[in-house]
Design brief:
The chain is of the alpha+beta class. The chain folds into 2 domains: 264 residues, outer membrane lipoprotein receptor (LolB), chain A; 80 residues, Metallo-beta-lactamase, Chain A (4-Layer Sandwich), CATH 3.60.15.10. It contains 9 helices and 19 strands. The strands form 2 sheets. Strands 1, 2, 3, 4, 5, 6, 7, 8, 9, 10, 11, 12, 13 and 14 form a 14-stranded antiparallel β-sheet that branches. A 5-stranded mixed β-sheet has the order 15-16-17-18-19. Strand 8 and strand 9 form a beta hairpin. The longest helix is centred in the first third of the chain and has 16 residues. The chain is elongated, with a radius of gyration of 23 Å.
Length: 366
C-alpha cells in the first residue's frame, strides 16, 4: 500500500471515529445531503431534468454473429426527466448503431386519475400506449422505471433516513478508499453505497438490476462531475457496469430542477385515452393486432417488433417472441380469444437479438 493510500484509509477511520456516538450509514447519508446543499434544498427537488447528454450504450444484443463483440450504440441529445412526486420518468435520446439510427422516447407516466401507463414514441410512428411492463429502452437504462429507483436524490435521502445501525466500512471504489454503508430503498431492495471521504458526496452504489433480457445483474453505478444546480450539487456523469461488463455511460451538459415545462412530456394525449384504459384493464399490455395473410397464416402487428402466427389443426406456432413479456402476454390473450381451442405450442426464434427474443419467457409461460 502506498503512503498516500494508507493516509487516506487512516483519514476515513479517524473521520468515522470522530462522529458523535457510533457511526452509522445514516450519518453518511446525512453528511451527503449536507454536501449536496442541505436536506431542505434537496427535498424540494420535485422534478429533475438532465439535458444534452452524450454517451454510449454497450449492451444491445445486436452483434451480427454469435460470439462477436457487440457494436456500441452511440447516444446523443439525451434528456432524462424525473418527476419524483408523481413517480413518473422519461427517457428521450437519439441512438446510432452502425448504419441504424432512431430518435426514441420511453415514458413511464400516469393518466389524469393517477393510473400508471407507458408511452413509446419512436421516430415517425404513431405514439404507442402500453402497460409500464411493456417499456423497453435502448438508452442509458433498460427502462425509465430505473430512473425512479436509481436517482441520486432518492438514494441519498433513503440513506439519510435509514434506521440501520451498521457501522461504515472502508472499501475500495474506483481505485480509492471510500466509506461504505448500505440502505434500504422504498422499493424494498438493499443497495451498497460508496461515499467520498473528502467531499462526503455519493460517488457510486452497487445493487442488483433485473433486466428484461439479461436477468438479474450485479450492477455498479459511478457518479461523477457534480455541479451546482439551483443550489443543489448533482452528478452530471453516470457510468453503469452490469454483470462485470460496461453497460452504458452518459455525460450531461446541464440540468434543471422543478422546471414546470419539463412535465409536458408526461401528458397522455386525449386521443390515446381509450388505449390507455385498455392497457390498464389488461395488466401486462402492449398493442398487438392480428391480420390474416392467407389460410392459417397471420401477421401479429405490434407497435414495433412483430410476430408471425401459423395455425395447425390443434395448436398454434408463433415465429418471433418479440420485445417484451408484456407483448407476449397480449399476443397470447388475443390468440386465445381468436382461437379458443388452439393453444400456443411452439415459439420459433429466428435470431437471438434482444428485440426479437425479449418476450420468449412470456410465450413459454403461455
Amino acid at each position: 500500500m502506498s503512503i498516500a493510500r494508507a493516509l487516506a484509509v487512516v483519514g476515513i477511520a479517524v473521520g468515522l471515529a470522530a462522529c458523535s456516538g457510533a457511526p452509522t450509514a445514516r450519518q453518511l447519508g446525512q453528511n451527503a445531503l449536507d454536501a449536496m446543499g442541505g436536506a431542505e434544498r434537496v427535498q424540494r427537488v420535485n422534478t429533475l431534468t438532465m439535458k444534452g447528454g452524450v454517451g454510449t450504450r454497450y449492451r444491445h444484443g445486436q452483434s451480427v454473429k454469435v460470439g462477436d463483440a457487440e457494436p456500441a450504440g452511440m447516444l446523443k441529445n439525451v434528456i432524462e426527466t424525473l418527476d419524483r412526486v408523481n413517480n413518473r420518468a422519461a427517457l428521450d435520446y437519439e441512438l446510432q448503431i452502425g448504419a441504424f439510427g432512431q430518435h426514441r422516447r420511453e415514458i413511464l407516466t400516469k393518466t389524469a386519475d393517477g393510473r400508471a401507463v407507458g408511452l413509446e414514441d419512436v421516430g415517425g410512428r404513431p405514439l404507442a400506449v402500453m402497460s409500464p411492463s411493456g417499456l423497453f429502452s435502448w438508452g442509458t437504462q433498460n427502462s425509465p422505471e430505473f430512473l425512479l429507483k436509481r436517482n441520486v436524490i432518492g438514494i441519498v435521502m433513503a440513506a439519510a433516513d435509514t434506521p440501520s445501525t451498521e457501522q461504515p466500512q472502508t472499501r475500495d471504489f474506483a481505485g480509492t478508499p471510500h466509506a461504505f454503508g448500505t440502505t434500504r430503498l422504498a422499493s424494498g431492495e438493499t443497495i451498497g453505497l460508496y461515499f467520498n471521504p473528502q467531499t462526503k458526496l455519493l460517488d457510486g452504489y452497487e445493487t442488483t438490476d433485473t433486466e428484461s433480457m439479461l436477468g438479474d445483474q450485479p450492477s455498479v453505478y459511478t457518479l461523477a462531475d457534480y455541479r451546482d444546480v439551483a443550489g443543489v450539487q448533482l452528478p452530471h456523469k453516470i457510468t453503469i457496469v452490469k454483470g462485470g461488463k460496461p453497460y452504458s455511460d452518459v455525460q450531461f451538459a446541464s440540468a434543471a430542477v422543478n422546471d414546470a415545462n419539463a412535465l409536458a412530456v408526461f401528458l397522455v394525449p386525449a386521443a390515446a385515452d381509450a388505449e390507455a384504459d385498455k392497457a390498464i384493464a389488461a395488466g401486462d399490455y402492449s398493442p398487438v393486432t392480428i391480420v390474416r395473410i392467407s389460410d392459417g397464416v397471420y401477421f401479429a402487428r405490434a407497435y414495433s417488433h412483430n410476430s408471425l402466427v401459423v395455425e395447425f389443426p390443434s395448436y398454434l406456432a408463433v415465429v418471433e417472441a418479440a420485445y417484451t413479456d408484456a407483448q407476449s402476454a397480449t399476443l397470447a390473450r388475443v390468440l386465445t380469444e381468436q382461437f379458443p381451442k388452439k393453444p400456443i405450442r411452439y415459439a420459433a426464434v429466428t435470431h437471438y437479438h434482444y428485440d426479437h427474443t425479449g418476450g420468449v419467457r412470456g410465450l413459454a409461460a403461455a
